[in-house]
Amino acid sequence: MKKSVRRAVIAGNWKMNNTPAQTTALINEMKPLVAGADCDVVLCVPFVDIAAAVEAAKGSNIKIGAENVHFKASGAYTGEVSADMLVACGVEYVVIGHSERRQYFGETDQTVNLRSLAALNAGLKAIICVGETLEQRELGYTETLLKYQTKMALTGVTKEQLKNVIIAYEPVWAIGTGVTATADQADEGNGFVRAAIAEAYGEEAAEAVTVQYGGSMNAKNAEELVSKVNVDGGLIGGASLKAADFSVIVKAASEG
Ligand code: 13P
C-alpha cells in the first residue's frame, strides 16, 4: 500500500489559545475555506472550547479533537478529563504525548501508552506524538528514539485498534521555533516511525497508518512536506490559529 491510498489528516493543535467565543468565530471563518477538502480536517482545542467547537463545526467537514485525555475512567483525579467524557461531548480525536506535555507536565512513555489505550478503548482516534530533541539528534539517537517511543506508545494496542492510530512525528527542535525539518528529514523521521510499526504489526498494517509531520509547518512549506511519500499530513500549531494559513495547508494536503 502506498501513500496514494492513505488519507492525509491535517490537524490543528490550538494548544492554550482561544476562548469559546473566539473558537466559534475562527471555525466559522475556516468552514468555507476547507469545505470539500480531499483530506481529513481536525481541530484539537482546549477542553473548555470543545462545546463551542463541536457546535460551530456541525454540518461541516471539520472534526473536533481534544489535546489530552486521562487514562482512568473516573475518580479522584482533580483537573483531568476521561475518554468517555470526551466522547460524550462529540470529540472524535485526541492528541496524546505532545512534547510540551512530556517537557512541562511529566508525561512519560508509560503514561502516553496508558492514555493511548484509554482513548482507543473508548473509540477515539489517537494522535500520538513522538520526536527527538536537538541533543538526541546530534548524538545520533533519532532512529532509536523514534522507534522506542512509537513501540512504547503502542504496547497493548491491537491490530484492529491500530486503524484508529495516527502518529505525529514532531521533532522537538522544530516546534514553535520557526525551524522546520527539511522535507527529507520529515520523510526520514516518519519512515522510522513506520518501520517501528512494521516491526510490531507487519508491513501491511504499517503501510495503512497515517503518519503526520509537525513542527513549524506553515502555508509556505506544507506543499513540499506533504509531497513526501511518508508524510501523510500534519499536526499544526501556530498556523492553525489563522484560517487563511490553515486552509492553504489543507489545500496542499488535498493535492499532495
Ligand atoms: P508549531 O506548528 O507552532 O511549530 O507547533 C507544532 C506542534 O507542536 C503541533 O502539535
Helix-strand string: EHEHEHEHHEHHEHHEHEH
Counting H and I runs of at least 4 residues, what is the number of helices? 11
CATH topology, which one? Answer: TIM Barrel
State the fourth-level CATH superfamily. Aldolase class I
CATH architecture descriptor name: Alpha-Beta Barrel
Based on DSSP secondary structure assignment, what is the total number of beta strands? 8
In words, what does this structure look like?
- The mean pLDDT is 96.
- This protein has an eight-stranded parallel β-barrel, surrounded by five helices.
- Helix 1 links the parallel strand 1 (9-13) and strand 2 (40-44).
- The protein has one domain: Aldolase class I (TIM Barrel).
- The protein has 256 residues and is of the alpha/beta class.
- It is globular.
- Helices cover 42% and strands 15% of the residues.
- Bound molecules: 1,3-dihydroxyacetonephosphate.
- 1,3-dihydroxyacetonephosphate is lined by residues 13, 98, 170, 175-176, 214-217, 235-239.
- Residues 13, 98, 170, 175-176, 214-217, 235-239 line the site of 1,3-dihydroxyacetonephosphate (13P).
